[in-house]
């Protein structure tokens, strides 16, 4: 089979251009901003927001074309994640994961992809990627697994889950995909930030996973080229690991931009000593500095992601550097924005305070700074 050739009839779905997808994302920003407090209260993405994301076609950016995807590359989903992050960090976080997951699925064996998308192009899965909580044993035709995995963002809206289990080699897990009937969701998500992400625990008790629903992520796009052979999509020629993580960096920068947007509106409206706060030079310098760092992080993400899609050299180092800088920038900018508002900025009903909490807790999810700095150091010391 040549790259991109389909062995089954493709899912009929309208193709949307990059420009139209970004327009739809921008239109959802005020909608999600209005629902951000409700997402915190529900501790998951509101069902109406999930419906809006599905109706918009934005999640299908991650889908391979034959399963209802658009003729755009996966970096478009990163730009959408940035845009949506301006409105609601939790919703943008879950959107980015769902879209990235459906891109990851293109690396799985074709039989697995057919099973997953049998219910249509808007099928979603969440994940639990810490293998420490899982136990796996070989079984006839696959694996038997049990365990508990935390931080499964967006699991309430998903009908599948992908979990990591220890692989045959140290520090190189297997990823296994299971349908909703094979696992339980345990509501453990009572967090200070990203409350609306619904990042609950997944519990699996002695489930069988057939071999065709398993992949070694370290080999995907390296010496196993299933995604490229099936779909002919440029991003499937790059190592999966180099394109993983951008889905989380993009909404972080969107959160920072949302904090800047709120800061600008505030300094235009509030007055001190008879003058708008925005007239003061110190405030202007602070806003400019926040905007400069956020835009630099955004451009670095796009440039590094494009390098990864093209398969250029030194991908590991540049990917880690961009993700680390994005995380640092989001945390610093949202903290600066809160301080700009003085004591008012730390009140719970103020949106920038929520943005700061959302930006900080993402580092707990991924250990972003520590992991990426270790990756960079190892590359430098080679």
Explain what the structure shows.
With 382 residues, this protein is an alpha+beta fold. The chain contains twelve helices and ten strands. A four-stranded mixed beta sheet has the order 1-4-5-8, with helices on one face. Helix 8 packs parallel to helix 10 and helix 10 runs antiparallel to helix 12. It is globular. The N terminus is likely disordered.
Element layout with pairings:
Layout: H1 18-42, H2 47-56, H3 75-85, H4 89-104, H5 110-116, E1 125-128, E2 134-139, E3 142-152, E4 160-169, E5 172-179, E6 184-186, E7 200-210, E8 214-215, H6 226-231, H7 240-243, H8 246-269, E9 271-272, E10 275-276, H9 281-310, H10 315-340, H11 351-366, H12 368-380
Parallel strand pairs: 1-4
Antiparallel strand pairs: 2-3, 3-7, 4-5, 5-8, 6-7, 9-10
Helix pairs in contact: 1-3, 3-4, 3-8, 3-9, 4-8, 8-9, 8-10, 8-11, 9-10, 10-11, 10-12
List keywords for this structure.
382 residues, alpha+beta, four-stranded mixed sheet, disordered N terminus
């Amino acid at each position: 089979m040549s790259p991109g050739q389909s062995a089954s009839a493709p899912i009929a779905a309208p193709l949307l251009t990059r420009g139209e997808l970004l327009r739809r994302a921008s239109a959802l920003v005020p909608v999600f901003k209005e629902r951000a407090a409700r997402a915190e209260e529900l501790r998951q993405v509101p069902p109406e927001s999930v419906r809006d994301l599905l109706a918009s076609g934005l999640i299908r950016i991650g889908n391979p074309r034959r399963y209802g995807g658009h003729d755009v590359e996966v970096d478009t989903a990163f730009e959408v994640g940035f845009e949506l992050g301006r409105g609601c960090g939790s919703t943008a976080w879950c959107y980015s994961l769902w879209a990235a997951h459906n891109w990851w699925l293109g690396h799985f064996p074709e039989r697995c992809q057919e099973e997953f998308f049998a219910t249509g192009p808007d099928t979603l899965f969440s994940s639990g990627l810490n293998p420490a909580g899982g136990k796996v044993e070989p079984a006839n035709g696959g694996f038997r697994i049990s365990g508990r995995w935390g931080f499964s963002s967006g699991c309430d809206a998903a009908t599948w889950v992908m979990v990591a289990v220890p692989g045959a080699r140290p520090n190189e897990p297997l990823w296994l995909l299971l349908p909703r009937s094979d696992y339980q969701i345990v509501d453990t998500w009572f967090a200070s930030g990203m409350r609306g992400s619904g990042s609950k625990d997944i519990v699996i008790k002695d489930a069988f996973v057939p071999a065709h629903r398993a992949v070694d992520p370290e080999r995907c796009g390296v010496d196993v080229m299933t995604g490229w052979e099936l779909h002919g999509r440029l991003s499937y020629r790059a190592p999966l690991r180099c394109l993983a993580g951008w889905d989380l960096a993009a909404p972080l920068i969107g959160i920072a931009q949302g904090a800047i947007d709120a800061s600008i509106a505030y300094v235009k409206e509030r007055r001190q000593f008879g003058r708008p706060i925005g007239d003061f030079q110190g405030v202007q310098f602070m806003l400019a500095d926040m905007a400069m760092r956020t835009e630099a992080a955004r451009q670095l993400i796009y440039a590094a992601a494009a390098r990864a899609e093209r398969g250029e050299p030194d991908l590991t180092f540049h990917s880690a550097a961009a993700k680390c800088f994005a995380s640092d920038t989001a945390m610093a900018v949202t903290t600066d924005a809160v301080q700009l508002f003085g004591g008012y900025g730390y009140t719970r009903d103020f949106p920038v305070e929520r943005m700061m909490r959302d930006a900080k807790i993402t580092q707990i999810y991924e250990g972003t700074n520590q992991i990426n700095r270790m990756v960079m150091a190892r590359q430098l010391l080679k």
